[in-house]
Write a structure and sequence with these properties.
By secondary structure, the chain is mainly beta. Helices cover 0% and strands 50% of the residues. This is Cupin 2 domain-containing protein.
Length: 104
């Protein structure tokens, strides 16, 4: 048995992506952030839909349209494919643990 909140990475200088399940139509990842945000190079513009939930910590997702949503522990959000977005904030004082489900 595994636990999404155990065995968190020790290295806090980078964001960690762990693929939990991958099929042709669905991918599930655990993402652990320690204050990291999206790269300055631009917006995510994914071909897949993304359902994301914060299990610990907090994070803010900003959309190209100007809207932003802050997710705290237990909050989730569905991001339709090709909706340009980026992570503009994650908690600095604790790990932010995301569960992300990408699907066709």
């Amino acid at each position: 048995m595994n636990n999404l909140l155990s065995q968190l990475p020790i290295n806090t200088t980078k964001e960690h992506f762990e693929e939990l399940i991958a099929t042709k139509q669905t991918r599930i990842e655990r993402i652990v952030s320690f204050g990291q945000t999206s790269p300055n190079s631009g917006w995510y513009n994914q071909t897949e839909h993304e359902w994301v939930m914060v299990l610990e910590g907090s994070g803010t997702i900003e959309f190209e349209c100007g809207q932003s949503v802050t997710l705290n522990k237990g909050d989730y959000l569905n991001i339709p494919a090709h909706t340009k977005h980026k992570v503009s904030h994650t908690a600095l004082n604790q790990a932010t643990v995301w569960l992300a489900v990408f699907y066709a």
